[in-house]
Give the backbone structure.
Amino acid sequence: MNRRSFLHGALAAGAISGRARAADQSGRRLRTALIGAGWWGGNVLGEAIASRQCEIVGICDVDQRAVNPTVEKVTRLNGDRPRKYRDFREMLDREKPEIVIVTTPDHWHALCTIAAVRAGAHVYVDKPTAHTIGESQAMVRAARSHGRVVQVGTHRRTSPHMIQARDFIRGGGVGTVGMVRCHLNAGGTGPEQPLPTVAVPPELDWDLWCGPAPLRQFNGGDPSQPDAGAGTRGIHPRGHRQYLDYANGYLGDAGIHWFDLVLWITGEKWPRRIHSTGGRPVRGKPVLTPTEQTSDAPDHQVVHYGFESLTMTWESRLFGGNGAERGDVAAANFYGTKGTLHLGYRGGWTFYPADGGAARHEPARLNDPDGQNIRELWADFLDAIKTGRRPVSDIEEGHRSTNCSLLGMISYRLGRSIEWDGVKEVIPGDAAANQLLRRAYRKGWEYPA
Ligand SMILES: NC(=O)c1ccc[n+]([C@@H]2O[C@H](COP(=O)([O-])OP(=O)(O)OC[C@H]3O[C@@H](n4cnc5c(N)ncnc54)[C@H](O)[C@@H]3O)[C@@H](O)[C@H]2O)c1
């Protein structure tokens, strides 16, 4: 999927009729602004436009090469003429949006979301909620104290086939679930070759891109190019996932989706004990010199989560392919007394009865582009705003799901098990681990209280 095709999924599905600028029942569309006009921001924005209930008033990105084509496409699709911004604070101040979409890299989610709800906006923030647990806690507090709807982009909660699987498991179809195995096998090859440091392009404010996180040398590419960042190892665009200053590897990027499904389906709220191992035996030791760098996220990771009623495991791997798992890039298996339910990434779900009876398969029902259900999640978001109810992927739930990823990273960094008190949200009696609930921000930025 390249960013040029953004919004076209909505068009192809007939969700937008020409350049119509439809309004909701009240006749007025909600003033909507985007922070982070990259790959996924385009997908979310496309559904905001397709809903016909949003007037796009501002597009903000620290890279003008991402802003310009996004603004042009919005105008082409629904006639809106959003203003262009580099600094989200200025956009919030001038546009006073009612809805803000936050699709920046993870290290910016908390500051952008908190600033937006303080400015009076409802927020759709993509997963994971934040880069550290303290930021995510501050996001929940900000949403509650300002009475704003904050929806996290865990769109699988609105996938029709996932709802069906949830009901099947909750209805006892799998029996008592004792264990869930989540995994991601992203392929990959051998040692990672360092990328050279290159000049920061004039259209990009690299200092602001790094923001509260460490300022690394720039090694990225041009987001306006087709498939920019897909499969490359530069930090920007899209490569931030594998650089721990800005994200948390596949555990933070993909793990959250599966953990969110496990919590949602089983009703578990948090793990009591977490243990992670992993490393970079294949990609090699991270490199960071003034002239070149590699990523530094693990090339494989295993995490054990001890919940009250079940054990959950996570495995991610960037080598070896996945032939032995019949091509499943990512999945979760729910193991119960009546059999195993296999929740596929884009392949629907299959229940294999323990008694050897016939398997039941239900296909996935996903939208283009990129096999997602943002349309349904966006509709839920708008309804929550109108009715004042909590959205299906409410910030507090996204926070707990994200915590699973972030606690796994804390255990990985410490090289040992940790306990989690999910009521007080602390790691009891473990000063070294509690320190990792937060991190120091770069000068000029304040960690959210
Ligand atoms: N829900 C999902 O299934 C899903 C899928 C993909 C990505 N995502 C999430 O979306 C987010 C973005 O990922 P992506 O793949 O689109 O990355 P991307 O690099 O394509 O886009 C991020 C954009 O944010 C911009 N940005 C950085 N700092 C900014 C700031 N301070 N203000 C404004 N813009 C800023 C970057 O310049 C870039 O254009 C990530 O958090 C990712 O986890 C969610």
Q: What stands out?
A: The CA atoms of residues 275 and 417 lie 4 Å apart. The longest strand covers residues 177-185.
